[in-house]
Amino acid sequence: MIAIGSDHGGYDLKMKIIAHLQERGLEVKDFGCYDKSSCDYPDFGQAAARAVADGSCEKGIVVCTTGIGISIAANKVKGIRCALCTNSYLAKMTRLHNDANMLALGEGNTGVNLAVEIVDTFLDTPFSGEEKHARRISKLEMAAEETSKD
Fold this sequence. Notes:
By secondary structure, the chain is an alpha/beta fold. It has helices at about 10-25, 40-55, 70-75, 90-100, 110-125, 130-150; strands at about 1-5, 30, 60-65, 80-85, 100-105. The protein has a 5-stranded parallel β-sheet, sandwiched between helices.
């Protein structure tokens, strides 16, 4: 199950990504928004992120105009590693090295064909499992724990 969310600035690209994922035979849970009316990206980015964090969805994809705001919103949820990717190389590396569980895209700076390529790379690339990368991810998680205690 793939969690997906967007604000109004990412709505059109989100809908194209949903269609692509369904063509691939993947289940998608859409956390909104549901039209192009002005709305707030944290509401939808964090809803999708919570579904990934609690395990009800395996991975997540969030979209706004630039991908920046919604990635920041998703990363506020404990256990989320959301990466804004503008090309397939970044999508591959964030999965291999960071075990990112969410992908952020910007509709205003990423065309549909490129976005679909990034999505496929993100979903099809496994975490490398290398000790050095696992150690670094563990440090990120520990830092998040310490921050939440403050």
